[in-house]
Each structure stands twice: as structure tokens, then as C-alpha cells.
Amino acid sequence: MAKIAMLGSGFIGRFYADSLIGQRSRDTIVSIYSRREESAKKFAVDYNCSHWTTNMEEAINHPDVDMVCISLPNNLHEAAVMACCKAKKAVMCTKPLGRNAEEAKRMMEAVEKAGIFNGYLEDLCYTPKFLKALKSVQEGALGRILWAKSRETHPGPHSEWFWDKEQAGGGCILDLGCHCVEIARNFIGKDIKPVEVMCWADTQVKPIDAEDHAIGLVKYENGAIGQFEVSWTFRGGLDLRDEVMGSEGTIWLNSFLRTGFDMFTTGKGADYVAEKAESNTGWLFPVGDELNELGYNHMFADMFNAVEAGKAPRETFYDGYVVNAVLDAAYRSAKSKLWEPVKLDIWRGKEGLAKEKTLTDYNEQYYLIKEEMTHFGTAKLILKDKKTGQIIEKVV
Ligand SMILES: NC(=O)c1ccc[n+]([C@@H]2O[C@H](COP(=O)([O-])OP(=O)(O)OC[C@H]3O[C@@H](n4cnc5c(N)ncnc54)[C@H](O)[C@@H]3O)[C@@H](O)[C@H]2O)c1
């Protein structure tokens, strides 16, 4: 049973708390730290916490606490992690780990030096759909993964600090791209090195210094391509979609706007619909169980199982660091308009991979390019001569 200190009582702190103590869980939040006394007290009442404080170290050092959950604005992650290292308490940190790879690397090195458990709270790599899709990919159902694309777009975040480049560390590339990059990394293979990034970014709508819309391509060493599409200017709710394309198959996931629950209402009795929904009348797309659909339940189960087994969880600070390094390259590329290298001082995966050759033999003379049954009943083969390179068509 985990005894948790929650740092931050805002949007994600409450989502996490609902998941942590929901469904008759054995885990408890024993201390809550919030910046303002009234928020800390309210959270303590709502989630039955015996201790609340406006002093972060006091929550971390509370004698009943054995695990800390960081749900603070991005610029406060590092200080919170360092305090956990000092107190030698297990730590889980929300995304993005750092505002940049430098911060993330310091955090990763500190937790590893302190020898404490570290979990990276990347919920979208734990949604039920994602976990099942990943299993199919890992079992080879899609063959060699060629392209993994992830989109997170919505009409913009809910608190002021997100919109301040200094506190947030960036705009939608960092805030939403961190999810997309880690989703694609999982599908392509976490041991495959991301090598280069090309990114377009702009501030199309909002009066802010950071970007509110971006599209990026992440090249992996084995020839696979990751793609992220992120926006704080998208209208219509929270759009979470992934696409994976392999040499043997394809997966499309729609995690939020189309979950199989469509509803129409004139607005009578209108209520909360789903995260970032822009309307509560007309045709709506509610979500049955947001905590589960967004991966929080599976994520915390993995974290606590890992702590108990003395193992690393699926997502660690190292993963958070790699994601930050990819996003740093995206920011550099958006400025330079060039492919920018991903700078990874620490890399623990495979090295020196090249694009896999996957030529399919038809017979001694030919490679098979493709076979197709036409609408007029002819089965055709497209073949390539191995020696001459000539491409021919054969009706079978
Ligand atoms: N799906 C996800 O994984 C997800 C979703 C939303 C936010 N997040 C992350 O969670 C973290 C917190 O985001 P949030 O949406 O809960 O923000 P929020 O503004 O709703 O809450 C932040 C909380 O931090 C505390 N705080 C302490 N010092 C503060 C300060 N100086 N300024 C502002 N708040 C201070 C406050 O208690 C506040 O309630 C961010 O790192 C964000 O990227 C993750």
C-alpha cells in the first residue's frame, strides 16, 4: 500500500488523486502540498488527507510519506525532484519531466545517484487501447514499424502559467509533443535511437511568445519516422489520435473524441462532458471513464507494482529525458528550418543501426513488389528482375 504526498492540487493533481484513491484502492494520499492554503485544505477534505501544507519540503519529509507524486508547473519539477532525492523518497513526476533536456538530465542523474524509485507519469502510454495496440506491435502483427504518428490538439490549457514561456518552458510542442513523442517511441521501439528532427512551429492565434501550433518529424536510426501534430488552437475539444503503419499492418487509435459514445442534447440539464470539451449541447462525444480512457489507472498500477517488485516501471525519468532531448531538437529545427540532431549525452539503447533491407523473393530471378486482385477478376503480380532492375507485370 502506497502512502503518497501529492505536490500540487490543481488539474492533474486532482485527476491523479481520483485515480489513486478511486475504485476502493488501498493506496492513500497522506499529505498534500499546495501553494495556497485554501486549495491545500480543500484538497485535504476532498481526498481525506490527514496532512496539508503550503511548504513543499514538509510534505515530502512527512514521516508517513513513502512516495511523492509531482503535479506542479513545469518550472518546479526540478526543485521537487531534488527535495525527494534529499529525503530519499520514491518519486513519480508528471510530464514533461523538464523544461528542456538539461533539466531532465539533472533530474535523472540525481534520482539514480540517490538510488530512489523514479516513474515518469506519461499516462497516454498506458491507455487500454494503447497497451493493447503496443502488444500487437511487439508481437509483430504490423511487421517492421515504418511510421508512428500521434496527434494531441485542443483549444489551449487551463492555467495561466502554461502560457508563460519561462514557467512552462515552451508552448504546445513541449506541453503536448511530449506525449506524442513518447507514444511514437514506444511503437517504433524504445531501444531505437531518435536521431534527427524537422519541425514547423508558429504562433497562429494566441497572443503569446510560445508556439501554439506545430508539426514535427522525428527520424529514427533504423529508418522509421515518428510524427507529432500538436496545437493549442484546435477547436472542438481534445483530439487524441495515433496511427501506426508497419510493413504488415496498420493501427488507428482514437482515444478521446470518438470513443463509441455519441450523445445529443438540447442543453437541458447540461453538465461536464469530457476534458476540454467546448460545448455541452448538440451532438457530444462524452467519455465513459476518463481516468481509465486516459491511462491513469493502468499507469499508477504499473508504478506501484514496480515499486513493490523493486523494478523500474514502464516509463522512467530516463524516458522523460529522451523525450526532452527530442523536443529540444524540435525547437532548434523550428528556428533553423533544418533537420536538427537529437543530442543525447546518455543513450541506453541500440547503437549503429541501419535501415533494414526487406526484399521479398518471388523466385530466383525476381523480387516481389506487389500482388493484387483487380475488380475485373485478374490477379496480377508486379515483379522486379534482380539483375537488370526491370519491372514487369505478370497475370496469374
Ligand atoms: N495528462 C497529463 O499528464 C497532464 C495533464 C495536465 C497537466 N499535466 C502536467 O501537470 C503539471 C501541473 O499542471 P496542472 O494542469 O495540474 O496545473 P494547475 O495550474 O492546474 O495546478 C498546478 C498546481 O501547482 C501548485 N503550485 C505550487 N506552486 C505554484 C506556482 N508557483 N505557480 C502555480 N502553481 C503552483 C498549485 O497547487 C496548483 O494547484 C504540469 O507539469 C503539466 O504539464 C499533465
TrEMBL record:
<feature type="domain" description="Gfo/Idh/MocA-like oxidoreductase N-terminal">
    <location>
        <begin position="3"/>
        <end position="115"/>
    </location>
</feature>
<dbReference type="GO" id="GO:0000166">
    <property type="term" value="F:nucleotide binding"/>
</dbReference>
<dbReference type="GO" id="GO:0006740">
    <property type="term" value="P:NADPH regeneration"/>
</dbReference>
<dbReference type="GO" id="GO:0005737">
    <property type="term" value="C:cytoplasm"/>
</dbReference>
<feature type="domain" description="GFO/IDH/MocA-like oxidoreductase">
    <location>
        <begin position="130"/>
        <end position="251"/>
    </location>
</feature>
<dbReference type="GO" id="GO:0016491">
    <property type="term" value="F:oxidoreductase activity"/>
</dbReference>
<comment type="similarity">
    <text>Belongs to the Gfo/Idh/MocA family.</text>
</comment>
<dbReference type="InterPro" id="IPR000683">
    <property type="entry name" value="Gfo/Idh/MocA-like_OxRdtase_N"/>
</dbReference>
<dbReference type="InterPro" id="IPR036291">
    <property type="entry name" value="NAD(P)-bd_dom_sf"/>
</dbReference>
<dbReference type="InterPro" id="IPR055170">
    <property type="entry name" value="GFO_IDH_MocA-like_dom"/>
</dbReference>
<protein>
    <submittedName>
        <fullName>Predicted dehydrogenase</fullName>
    </submittedName>
</protein>
<dbReference type="Pfam" id="PF22725">
    <property type="entry name" value="GFO_IDH_MocA_C3"/>
</dbReference>
<dbReference type="Pfam" id="PF01408">
    <property type="entry name" value="GFO_IDH_MocA"/>
</dbReference>
<keyword id="KW-0560">Oxidoreductase</keyword>
